[in-house]
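WARN no homologs supplied; continuing
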Amino acid sequence: MPREDRATWKSNYFLKIIQLLDDYPKCFIVGADNVGSKQMQTIRLSLRGKAVVLMGKNTMMRKAIRGHLENNPSLEKLLPHIRGNVGFVFTKEDLTEVRDLLLANKVPAAARAGAIAPCEVTVPAQNTGLGPEKTSFFQALGITTKISRGTIEILVSFFFSIFCFRMYIFKCIYRLRLR
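OK structure emitted
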């Protein structure tokens, strides 16, 4: 089946989002950072029959909503929230029920280098199992360590806030295999 050209695809997307905004009285704006295709597939499967998930480019979503403002002026409240990697979940069901289904599909992910933590991170005082050649990671972070029995041991628990040490902390945590 050949793919439709870009102009046709865009016009179909605008029609689809306008139809969903008209048909469904309630919607969530959900963040989709670090969500893989398999996880998105299970979310769509669990919401089947209760809600519709719509992802797309932010500018196209904003343009479709702005074009539909004369029919429904309350949609203007959605515009400031369309930032980053977001999508819509349209529903006619109870919002708490759909939210619970969305949260049931939320899975913890291992830290990756360069990723921003969605929460505060505590590195507990423990034996890391890493060899002494990895001490530079801990020294860069200012974590007190010692080498015992050929492995690095963290002496004091260390707390990182969301906004500090973006790259170094996640390299370190990835090496520690903490979740």
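The longest strand covers residues 26-31.
OK
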